[in-house]
Amino acid sequence: MSYIDESKPAPAAAPQVVYRNRTSPVIVVLLTLLVVCVAALTVVIALPYLGVQLKLPGGPQATRTKEQILAEIDPAALVLPSGRQLSLVEFGQRVFEISRINFDASSPVHSLVYITVPGTPPQQGAYHIGDSFDRGRIAIRDILQQSVILACDGQQMEFKVYGALGEAVSSQPQTGINFMPPKNMGSGGVIPDAVPGSTGRIKAPLNPRIEEVDLPVSAPEPETDKPKSLEEFPDQRPVAVPRAEYKPFVDNMKKAFEESVLLMPAIDPDNRTAYGLECKNLRPESLLYRWGLRTGDVLIQINETEIRKHKDFEDALHDNNFRNGMQIHVMRDDLLVSFLITPSDAG
To answer: Which residue, 97, 84, 78, is CA-closest to 283?
Structure first.
């Protein structure tokens, strides 16, 4: 039988560890804000995939007209260093110029569109299909022979670029009309001489069932210079230029053209090929304007070099000697106009 000896002291109780929550209120607030921010960011990222767009009044997505956008841009940002004014279009609440298209028919993915945005000075970029600009907002959906399709904020729009065609297509064999009259119409020239004693006409017998009768053969037509219509001759316009004005122009002709006019490929609507470079935005104060060229003229030949694309134009400036004068041939309203420009010592 056991018993309790009360004379001995009872053993001391084991110590207990008590944990207290000492979390600061600041940490709680910060964690709450972090959770809220993560949730808000998740919603913002998910909205475009759900087809929902935020439209904040007065924000960057508020609809503005082209005139309102231009009013916010410095007019100096709309002019190229050459003095030409940008020809702007509006899309995606942005204004820009679709300067030209370099279309490659053999490989459309290699086609390029050149877009110039306002700035001081304006900046131009070359874009392939699938590229984008304005920080990725405006995308190049497709590049066609005379137009480009752009996409922005779920919308697509096609922009025509008249008279634009790239070197890749214009370098193909030309099948268009030769606008320059032949220099030699016979004696080994473009048109062969007629066989002596023939008229070039074949007569069928009057009645094939009857025995042929010897009919008198008409005498050969005399070779005389027949009068030609005015359309067969170019409109030649001699231009005498003071030598002090002519020499600086020819010494740096490429720069003079770039500062005076924008040259764009001109397209023959029948065979869809380029037949020259069209003059656009020709400056009225330029020497070319004073000598007779006008906006809309299609440059087809300089001296003896035919112009079909920009490389032909550069070759013409490099290969020809313009010391004693130059000939600039253009098409104007389906008529050939030739400017015979010569330096003159007269004041």
So the answer is: 84
